[in-house]
Amino acid sequence: MSKNNRMKTNLLDYSLPALTEYLAGIGEKPFRAKQLMRWIHQGGASDFDAMTDLAKSLRAKLQTRAEVGIPALMAAQASKDGTRKWLLDVGTGNGVETVFIPETERGTLCISSQVGCALECTFCSTGRQGFNRNLSAAEIIGQLWWANKALGVTPKNERVISNVVMMGMGEPLANYDNVVTALSVMLDDHGYGLSRRRVTVSTSGMIPQMDRLKDDMPVALAVSLHASNDAVRDEIVPLNKKYPLKELMAACNRYLAKAPRDFVTFEYVMLDGVNDRVQHARELVALVKDTPCKFNLIPFNAFPNSGYERSSNHQIAVFKDILMEAGIVTTVRKTRGDDIDAACGQLAGQVRDKTSRQMKWQQIYLEKQ
Length: 369
Ligand code: SAH
Ligand code: SF4
Description:
Layout: H1 3-6, E1 9-10, H2 16-25, H3 30-42, H4 56-65, E2 66-67, E3 73-78, E4 84-89, E5 95-102, E6 107-110, E7 114-116, H5 125-128, E8 131-134, H6 137-151, E9 163-166, H7 176-187, E10 199-203, H8 207-216, E11 220-224, H9 230-236, H10 245-256, E12 264-270, H11 278-287, E13 293-299, H12 313-325, E14 330-332, H13 361-367
Parallel strand pairs: 1-2, 6-9, 9-10, 10-11, 11-12, 12-13, 13-14
Antiparallel strand pairs: 3-4, 4-5, 5-6, 7-8
Helix pairs in contact: 2-3, 6-7, 8-10, 11-12
Bound molecules: S-adenosyl-L-homocysteine and iron/sulfur cluster (SF4).
S-adenosyl-L-homocysteine is lined by residues 121, 123-125, 167, 171, 202-204, 224, 267, 269, 298, 300-301, 344-345.
């Protein structure tokens, strides 16, 4: 990137209203913003010269002061099962990962929101790496830009990516503003035009931001529950000490009142001997009795020195049956892309932790809020 470029405005950082305002500031009409959005996000264009239906004078204006700053691609991998993975350069040796999971009825892109994560869930490889920084809106939407460009459309001219889940590296709600901007581009008809019901934010339970999201940008919600009582959750999801289960359930119910879907998805990592016993399943049934929900059980994906074991298939089946008998729709997440380390919690990317090994997450999230 040249010195000149660094001073340019990155249009990938903008939602449609922000782009409209930016163009108004340089004397351009609002409809130009829609055209630009379509070129960038639907046409995969990053060069203003390619945007042939924009007036030459506008293209020239943009060239001097703006850019479509796409994060550079460091590596791309494809698994035998069709899963694809991209590693994007987010500067100073750091990389973040994006994973595409094809299924019969849909194609899901799993997007990262931060370089590392400060929340230190004990079973999560990203959390173990510490926190480096938030991704910009451009770096978040840039993941969809790359994947969309690589995957294109189906023979029926439908987009290959039908669903987006914010379940990659990082805690999306800890990077609230940039995530909301990126979500707005995902949903915009001039952007990626995705349905609110098909865009999911996954959170470890940041209650104030859940409350904001339901008003600002209601999309489908997944909550990483992982435990049936506060004692276990305090241990494995340390954020629980700040936002315990009872309050979390109440926040889920508030969210549901405004959400595009009428249930919350609870993610539940199956850790042998830690949270996978019959008594835990029964406790869970009682915990969620007033919250319309589905459960997604995630067999633990091991990484070196994790200190945990995956629950046996038998234990997972027993656990699932107890929830199902209580009338809760429960699925077990299939592990995809095993051969390219693309499974949940294995997205390691390349994180150079500059702060948080010393600066505890408590300082960042407990004291400053
Ligand atoms: N920070 C957000 C979203 C990213 S993680 C969150 O925690 O919800 C996406 C999901 O993968 C979360 O439910 C997370 O708890 C789970 N996960 C993390 N590490 C895992 C591992 N090693 N095995 C299985 N699931 C894991
Ligand atoms: Fe962060 Fe989510 Fe991993 Fe917890 S599970 S450390 S919140 S990315």
